[in-house]
From TrEMBL:
Domain of life: Bacteria
Protein name: HlyD family efflux transporter periplasmic adaptor subunit
Coiled-coil parts of chain: 69-103, 142-174
This protein's record includes keyword Transmembrane: no
Keywords: Coiled coil
Domain YbhG-like alpha-helical hairpin: 80-202
Cross-referenced Gene3D superfamilies: 2.40.30.170, 2.40.50.100, Helix hairpin bin (1.10.287.470)
Pfam families found in the cross-reference section: HH_YBHG (PF25881)
SUPFAM superfamilies linked to this entry: HlyD-like secretion proteins (SSF111369)
Subcellular location as annotated: Cell envelope
Length: 325
């Protein structure tokens, strides 16, 4: 009697066992579709434009600021002096260009004409002396060398006349167009350097590039940070995003634009999200160093943006769990 009744008992136990196994597999499958990580905000770093001392800090960590709000200020003395020197060079280049455009003065032209007249007078005198020496040389009343000297002096005087003529012609024709172009280029270069230094001076007064929250102030009042060092780090954006590591077994099923459920540690309920980025390269061990089941240990970095309105108040660094639909 017990044997007969035992068979139906086994038959009734098999469906319950299959249901239990199905629930366990479903739980494992659901767990396998998850990725773990933390909440993050987009970060913007305000770098040091110059290696100058911090003379004022206008914000504190955790303070929300608007775009363009003053954050801190660096010492201005050196940058102001460099700007003043460049402005003086720009003025000098402008005056040089104005002089080139104006051309020679009337006094310079008059001086050129006087130099030409003097050269012509010397040439006439030298030529007359050479003509007087020629018959004396033929009569051998003077040495032949003296005649040669007189001829050389006459030729030299004629050359001085031609040089004075060309110098006067240069003054009368005015400044060449190429010289004016060079002056314009020099002025443009000086003005550009002045503009760059003006921007550098403005950057000494650090302002918020976007609206956000001051997350960190790595340097304090009186510090002198190197060029490019982040003086202020801000959290910006409308909402944080989940930065998670996708396991290799579900990597093929995760794509950009895919919807996801985000579970925030310490917060009831879930938040809606959407995958905005997933890396194609694994974050940890390279795939070619793994074989067999070890490949499942690979992880791929992904970012899931939160679309809910309640996400804007969440802090950074909170652990999250993401389930992909």
């Amino acid at each position: 009697m017990s044997t007969v009744t035992g068979v139906p008992a086994v038959k009734h136990a098999r469906p319950a066992l299959w249901v239990l196994l199905a629930l366990m597999l479903a739980g494992c499958n659901e767990e396998g579709q998850q990725a773990l990580g933390t909440l993050e905000w987009d970060r913007v770093a305000v770098p040091a434009p110059a290696a100058e001392k911090i003379v004022r800090i206008d914000v504190r960590e955790g303070q929300r600021v608007a775009a363009g709000a003053r954050l801190a200020q660096l010492e201005l003395a050196r940058t102001q002096s460099q700007l003043a020197a460049l402005q003086a060079q720009a003025r000098q280049a402008g005056d040089t260009l104005a002089e080139l455009r104006a051309g020679p003065r009337r006094e310079d032209i008059a001086q050129g004409r006087a130099n030409l007249a003097a050269a012509q007078a010397r040439a006439t005198n030298a030529q007359a002396f050479y003509r007087r020496m020629q018959p004396l040389g033929r009569q051998q009343l003077v040495a032949e060398a003296e005649v040669d000297l007189a001829r050389a002096a006459a030729d030299n005087a004629q050359a001085e006349v031609r040089a004075a003529q060309q110098a006067l012609l240069e003054l009368e024709r005015g400044t060449r167009s190429e010289q004016i172009a060079q002056g314009e280029a020099a002025l443009a270069a000086a003005q550009a350097q002045t503009a760059v230094q003006t921007v550098n001076l403005e950057k000494m007064d650090l302002v918020a590039p976007r609206a956000g929250v001051v997350d960190s102030l790595p340097y304090r009042l009186g510090d002198q940070a190197p060029v490019g060092a982040p003086l202020v780090i801000m959290l910006v954006g409308d909402a944080p995003y989940a930065r998670v590591y996708v396991p290799e077994p579900i990597r093929a099923n995760v794509r950009v634009g895919q919807a996801a459920q985000v579970h925030v540690d310490g917060r009831d309920g879930t938040l809606q999200g959407r995958v905005r980025m997933i890396r194609s390269e694994p974050t940890f061990t390279p795939y070619y160093a793994l074989i067999g089941k070890d490949v499942s240990r690979l992880s791929y970095l992904a970012e899931v943006e939160l679309t809910g309105k309640d996400a804007a108040s969440l802090p950074a660094g909170v652990p999250v769990r993401v389930e992909f639909e």
